[in-house]
Amino acid sequence: RLAEQLGPRLQFCTDSQLRTICEISPFLRVEHEELGDESTGEWSALLVNGSPKFVDVYSVDDAYPEEVWSAAEAHFEAVGGNLVLPRGRYASARVLLAQRLPFLAGCTLGR
Fold first, then answer.
1. H or E stretch at 35
2. Gap between the terminal Cα atoms of the chain
3. Which of 9, 13, 31 is nearest to 21 (CA)?
4. CB 30 within 8 A of CB 15
5. What is the pLDDT of residue 43?
6. pLDDT tens digits, residue range 35-78?
């Protein structure tokens, strides 16, 4: 999300540089993802004084009622092949939320 917020100002920052910046920040803690005894190379930066509240994109639990899915299906069928969304879940969610679609009323990004 940082790259989306900063846009071109972040274009000269490598992943390694960004991780280093996060690691030296007193406001962030960096967690490295591991699979078994080995690092996956993935990492995340979390606020030191915050509690992480993430959506598990792999969860099979569905928090939405059938009405939301039916309305979403009707919308996407209506726009057909004319819908163009950016790459990434967050960027696509921002585009859809900006359209003020009735079936997304009351929803927040990341939920």
1. strand 28-35
2. 15
3. 13
4. no
5. 85
6. 766 667 788 888 898 777 777 777 788 888 899 999 999 999 99
Host H or E run for residue 73: helix 66-79
Encoded amino acid at 103, one letter: F
Strand partners, 34: 39
Determine the Cα–Cα distance for residues 45 and 72; give it in Å rounded to an integer. Answer: 33
- pTM: predicted TM-score of the whole model, two decimal places: 0.52
How many other C-beta atoms can be found within 10 angstroms of the C-beta atom of residue 68? 15
Residue 81 DSSP class:
G
Give 7's contacts (C-beta < 8 A, 6+ positions apart).
Answer: none
What are the respective helix, strand and coil percentages of the chain, to the nearest 5? 45, 15, 40
